[in-house]
Design goal:
This protein is an alpha/beta fold and 295 residues long. Helices cover 45% and strands 18% of the residues.
């Protein structure tokens, strides 16, 4: 069954990869209409997330944001598939890194780094292209699929331009494997943690929110400087990425501080252009365990 599903995904990837962008946008507009008006895909989840995150906005504003999100979401779905077979030159033209030289001093010192991002903008194109912009080895972490055959196929396409990939559960092992090589470990850090007791909780978009504790733990254990990347959508199908330093010496920080800095950066990013974040994610489906409640 896994092989059959992967066979159809292969066909889809090849078909979408051949489409010109003008046709891709027409399909995206149709997809948006279907998701919103016929299937109602997670429509209530999106509306509730937006309403709770922006209590200062009225119903009309929340409805407008919801519509903008679904237009963006439909674009991202198709762009992500098309990006898997997009030529290198076109990818670099459409996904531009403003300041990759920020990592050069580290590379010259043979020093590694941790880079934190989120499900904002077109993060999949970032997975594909980041290794083209820096001299470091780029190691992206990912959440494994249940379909192993499909995972191997998709990862083979994601690694076309030199990116290495590591199961997020084995990020520590990857850090050991690349210990003697200057590397940048990329974590998409806004996922809901499965381990609520060890999660780092902080105020985020007016809500008590759990974050993965791994990024904080890895940074303080390795001492690698931590950076943040923000993806800005310039126009349909074009993005620019800006890097900023989040923490130069993680070992000097108390537990949870890197998480708090990341959450603050991400919230600022979202507030600048709310529709470009993944609002269909059930980000606030769990409550803080009693053991983690503030004293």
């Amino acid at each position: 069954m896994d092989r059959i599903g992967t066979f159809f995904i292969r066909i889809l990837v090849k078909l979408v990869g051949q489409l010109p962008f003008w046709l891709l946008w027409l399909l995206s507009d149709l997809s948006c209409f279907l998701l919103l008006n016929m299937f109602g895909y997670r429509k209530k989840i999106v509306a509730d997330n937006l309403k709770n995150s922006f209590p200062e906005r009225n119903k009309a504003e929340i409805k407008a944001l919801s519509s903008q999100f679904f237009r963006h979401f439909s674009d991202i779905l198709l762009e992500s598939v098309k990006g898997l077979t997009m030529p290198k030159a076109e990818l670099q033209q459409r996904f531009v890194y403003r300041n990759p030289e920020i990592f050069q001093p580290l590379y010259e010192k043979k020093q590694s780094a941790i880079l934190l991002g989120s499900h904002y903008g077109n993060w999949e194109w970032g997975v594909l292209s980041f290794s083209l912009s820096v001299q470091h080895i780029v190691v992206g972490t990912y959440k494994p699929l249940k379909n192993i055959v499909l995972e191997e196929y998709l990862n083979s396409l994601r690694k076309r331009w030199g990116t290495s990939l590591a199961d997020m559960a084995h990020t520590g092992r990857a850090i050991v494997n690349y210990k003697n090589q200057p590397s940048i470990f990329v974590l998409i850090a806004d996922q809901t943690p499965s381990d609520m007791r060890n999660a780092h909780w902080t105020d985020f978009l007016h809500q008590d929110t759990p974050f993965l504790h791994g990024m904080d733990k890895l940074a303080r254990k390795t001492g690698y400087p931590v950076f943040y990347f923000e993806i800005e959508r310039m126009k349909r199908g074009f993005y620019e990425v800006t890097f900023s330093l989040l923490c130069e010496a993680p070992k000097n920080l108390p537990e949870g501080e890197i998480t708090r800095r990341y959450a603050a950066k991400l919230e600022a990013t979202i507030r600048r252009s709310p529709a470009n974040w993944l609002w269909s994610h059930r980000r606030w489906k769990r409550k803080r365990p009693a053991a983690n409640l503030p004293a």
